[in-house]
Amino acid sequence: MIADTQDILQKRERTEKVLTSVVNLPVIPKVMFETIKLLDNKYTTAGELNKVISKDQALLTKILTIANSPLYGLQRKVTTIEYAILVLGYRELKNIISALSVAEAFRNKTDKYLNSKEFMLHSYLTGTACKKLASDIGFNNSGEAFIAGFLHDIGISIIHRYLHSSFINVTELVESKGMTFRDAELDVLGMTHEQVGFFLLDRWNFPREISDPILSHHAPDATSSSPVLSAVVNLADYITNRLKLTSAPWDNDVTLSPFSMQKFNLERELDVERFIDGYKDIFWNQIEFVRFLN
Fold first, then answer.
1. Cα dihedral sign for 141, 143, 144, 148?
2. Which residues lie across from 114 on neighbouring strands?
3. pLDDT, average across residues 223-230
4. Do residues 272 and 265 touch, judged by C-beta distance below 8 A?
């Protein structure tokens, strides 16, 4: 049984104290930080960006892999940063690197409670799926869809890294009591992983059109500041779990909200099945494409 309201509030206060101490940690890798600063300057040249990004071959590989992945939808293969800038633009490139930098900042080693590689695969897949779904319905900010999808479960990684004993307690409650992951999070932390992710991204001054869908991706509705993007993330997350593309035990109970169904004109369960079936092949191609990224 979930703790009472007063108990949850007290636990939330303790959790937020820990999270507040995390906010100012210098956790973003240097090359990523330098790259984001360069992308904020409209006078930065492609050569300058290439020089900085090339210092980190792992980052370069991830950028090019994401840009070339099937769900990202580019028509020609991207083989260099210069060409990535040409076809993606500075804003889109910044979205990719911002998402990668946050994910890298909160990455933790794999243990029996969380498989880091599977977590990253789920993040990559959901991010690129969000971009594809957003593009397909004519949503103008498909780049924001990528970053919101990529970071939708960042709260899981944060809890695992900075509140590790609590993460263990949550996992044990799920396994021993049969609780849902989010109910167990409330019981232990007074917050769910989407609230944890929002808490930190908001304090890192991420735009609300990105942080709000992260907060509401399990239950999007019209009250969100980014209702369409929240529905996109909810649907992408639902599809990845429905097709069992990655192991994401914290999302085993994820549901497709009525609001998301409405936004994608899905009136019945049969409509949902047909919709997912139409994306099945490209999703499986996508997971094979990004599987080696970690």
1. positive
2. 111
3. 86
4. no
The tokens describing 14, both together, are: 């303790």
Tell me if 282 sits within 8 A of 239, measured CB to CB.
no
CA 94/CA 40 separation, integer angstroms: 8
Q: Is the pLDDT of residue 76 over 50?
A: yes
The Cα 192–Cα 168 span in angstroms is 14
Q: Which residues contact 221 (CB under 8 A, 6 or more apart)?
A: 227, 230, 257, 259
Query: Is the pLDDT score of 155 beyond 50?
Result: yes
What angle separates helix 208-216 from helix 193-203, to the nearest 10 degrees? 170
CA distance 173 to 230: 28
CA–CA gap between residue 147 and residue 94 (Å, rounded): 10
Average per-residue pLDDT in the chain? 87
Question: What is the full DSSP assignment across 257-271?
Answer: -HHHHHHTT--SHHH
Both tokens of 167, joined, read 């993460």
**For residue 92, pLDDT beyond 60:** yes
pTM, two decimal places? 0.89
**Start-to-end CA span in the chain (Å):** 37
Cα–Cα distance between 282 and 125 in angstroms, integer?
11
- CB 154 within 8 Å of CB 194: no
Largest Cα–Cα separation, the chain? 58
- Give the mean pLDDT of 242-248: 86
CB 111 within 8 Å of CB 161: no
Q: Is 218 helix (H, G, I), strand (E, B) or coil?
A: coil
Q: For residue 184, what are its two tokens? A: 């167990």
Is pLDDT above 50 for 68? yes
Angle at CA of residue 293, ends 122 and 48, nearest 5°: 115
